[in-house]
Amino acid sequence: MNQNDLINTRNATMDEAREEMANLLEARPANYSLPQPLYNDPQMFRVDMEEVFQKEWLFVGMTSEVPNKGDYFTVEIGQNPVLVVRDADGSVNAFHNTCRHRGSRICTEHRGKVANLVCPYHQWTYDLKGNLLFAGTEMGDAFDMKEHGLKKAHTKTAGGFVFVCLAKNEPEGDFDEFLETLEEYMEPYDVENTKLAVESNMYEQANWKLVIENNRECYHCAGNHPELLNTLLEWDDTNDPRASDEFREHCAAQAAEWDAEGIPHEHRSFGPGLRNRIVRMPLKKGTHVMTLDGEAGCKKLLGRVKNPSLGSMRILHLPNSWNHMQSDHFIVFRVLPISAQESIVTTKWFVHKDAVEGVDYDVARLRQVWDATNEQDRILGEENQRGINSIGYQPGPYSETFEFGIVNFMEWYSETVQKNLKG
Ligand code: 3BY
Ligand code: FES
Ligand code: FE
């Protein structure tokens, strides 16, 4: 076979995978877990990468991680290294972290600060807008510097959240409306004046969809999350039909306080499968934040917050993030796929930028509950994956009352992939 034949064979294999994906999703009963290949097959994973992670808006981090000019962090979206950097004009830019010379990664650290972006291989140098400034003296007369700037990824920021999109064209939809709401709901926290207290990167041997499925239900909470359940109410909404009168009274009392303080709390959601969703939920009566004992994790409250009991404002962004905003600290979660059966879950804890470690907050205490919860969820995800890999696996039913969040996720996933496959 010559090179073209080889490329054609490869394309034909991907075309088959795309067709198989479309057929599997088309035939999928809405309230059942997915067929096995969608959780473990490498070709299906490539379709997920191409149709979801390389086309949709993804949460990557917070603007307060890059407070000053030249601050950057890096992130790997599947096989795509991306760098997020603060420009001199204050904007946050994202680029493919791959040199326009011969493709080396440019920023090799997880985070750092630079004046310019210098490739470690042959020192091609780019400014913070991605323009090529220097390529040595040996590239010949015909070489055009302007044609060799870094490739940009679309970037949007709102309420301190940074989203990137690797597609050529941004996806259509109501993402901007979600961002406006995010801006409004995040206002009390003054995110620009927060700092990263600590982060964890957890490797999980499970397909990314299993990580999200696990997060979208609390059916498993009672049996697995003793630390989290000290403070977290299992319902995902204040009007859950299963909730007791006591729960409703608690919600109403909290809502009255929040209204008086101008703290947004009402449920807002956008897109198919409530893809982007914000709701503030009270925590258990008598607890303030998600620490082991429910008492503050940081003595300095965030932004203009006065009330230590702001519950947790839950922010969901499919396909890859859920978040908990509280009075004294907030926690963001990011899921990124590595392969069909591997993912990375990154958790970051933020506090007021003037809070002093060891005085106002103790990192070990701050992270305790979600470290425990993440580890419990990792084991659940990995066991879920192992069972799904069996020839004995058969898609099983989701509970309508406990697992509607997964039904929604699957609705979004299925619609999005099918739409994107059609191009
Ligand atoms: O709290 C969360 O992030 C979600 C909600 C329910 C289960 N899971 C722990
Ligand atoms: Fe970057 Fe050569 S690959 S300078
Ligand atoms: Fe869990």
TrEMBL record:
Molecular functions per Gene Ontology: 2 iron, 2 sulfur cluster binding; dioxygenase activity; iron ion binding
Keywords, alphabetical: 2Fe-2S, Dioxygenase, Iron, Iron-sulfur, Metal-binding, Oxidoreductase
Short name of one Pfam family: Rieske
Rieske domain location: 57-164
Transmembrane segments: none
InterPro entries named in the record: Rieske_2Fe-2S, Rieske_2Fe-2S_sf, Ring_hydroxy_dOase_asu_C_dom, Rng_hydr_dOase-A
Cofactors (names): Fe cation
Coiled coil, from the record: none
Domain of life, per lineage: Bacteria
Protein name, as recorded: Aromatic ring-hydroxylating dioxygenase subunit alpha
Originating species: Pontibacterium sinense
